[in-house]
Amino acid sequence: MNAIHALNEIMADEGGMQVNKQIIMHLLNRIKHFNEWGQCAVLELVNKYHPTDEETIFDIMNVLNDRLKHTRA
After folding, report:
1. In sequence order, which residues have a C-beta less than 8 Å from that of residue 16 and are 6 or more positions away?
2. Considering only CA atoms, which of 7, 5, 35, 21 is closest in space to residue 63?
3. For residue 41, how many other CB atoms are within 10 A of its CB?
């Protein structure tokens, strides 16, 4: 997560770290292993990502479904 924070800060003038489907899905599949701050950082990246098709949107929603059911969500 430190690398993501560093890239976002370094590339702030360019809008922060650029993300693609592979990066988003990699981070989302590991989101439960991050602390709350790390999960927030991942969700901020997801917010910046614009899926190109409905299948990707549903893939993201399915991965996040577990996090949305969390008691602190």
Report:
1. 7, 8, 48
2. 21
3. 20
Q: How far apart are alpha carbons 50 and 7 in whole angstroms?
A: 19
Encoding tokens for residue 24? 């988003």
pTM of the model: 0.81
If we measure between CA atoms, which residue out of 25, 7, 24 comes closest to residue 16? 7
Q: Are 49 and 36 in contact (CB under 8 A)?
A: no
Whether 3 has a pLDDT exceeding 90, the answer reads no
What's the pLDDT score for residue 2?
85
What's the pLDDT band for 72 if we cut at 50, 70, 90? low
